[in-house]
Design goal:
single chain, globular, outer membrane lipoprotein receptor (LolB), chain A, mainly beta, twelve-stranded mixed β-sheet, 3 helices
Length: about 200
């Protein structure tokens, strides 16, 4: 059902050029949700599915946790991006600079300057779904298209397509907007014995 909204004819943006994503960025300062992530190959076959929780706080703070046996944690604290793999007992850190600004996770916690890193390919509304399709301007990014689906201003889904036509669909449930969040959600300290890779 979600995909149908993106098959609709392209509708014009508002007279001010504002899309559903602009409204989301303007009105949403924090967001928490449960998510289900499904990866499909270029023939549409399901490759992998995972669940977890996420939280974001503008600007540039993000917490993304994959649950289950292959637990992985991705945290942006405003300055540093951390990726922690509990199974491998390994944490990777990198500066949260412009080179990372057009990654999908950080896209949600950014600001209206997203147009510096993305072209708006399509936007429109159908059956209560407002949607926007973005194409990264940088050729070396992992994804060639990002589709965002909103209902009444609330983020419902994110679909990522790579250069090989592999598709990642992320749907969000139990979405809470603008709740007060603990700062500890966006900090990370590597557990004892974990190998840390990367610079401060």
């Amino acid at each position: 059902m979600l995909a149908l909204a993106w098959l609709a004819p392209v509708a014009a943006e508002t007279s001010a050029g504002e899309t559903a994503f602009d409204i989301f960025l303007r009105d949403t300062q924090t967001l928490t949700a449960d998510f289900t992530q499904t990866i499909y190959d270029n023939l549409g076959g399901e490759v992998e599915q995972s669940q977890g929780t996420m939280a974001m706080q503008r600007p540039n703070r993000f917490h993304w946790r994959y649950a289950g046996d292959d637990e992985q944690l991705i945290i942006a604290d405003g300055d540093t991006l951390w990726i922690y793999d509990a199974v491998l007992e390994q944490a990777t850190r990198a500066p949260l600079d412009d080179a990372l600004a057009d990654t999908p996770a950080l896209l949600l916690s950014g600001n209206a300057e997203y147009r510096d890193g993305f072209d708006v390919v399509e936007s429109g509304t159908r059956a209560k779904h407002s949607w926007i399709v973005l194409a990264p301007k940088r050729a070396e990014t992992d994804f060639r298209l990002i589709r965002l689906d909103f209902t009444a201003g609330t983020l419902q889904a994110m679909i990522l397509e790579d250069s090989l036509s592999q598709r990642t669909e992320i749907t969000f449930d139990n979405v809470a907007v603008n709740a007060e969040l603990a700062t500890t959600l966006f900090t990370f300290t590597a557990p004892a014995g974990v190998d840390v890779i990367g610079q401060d």
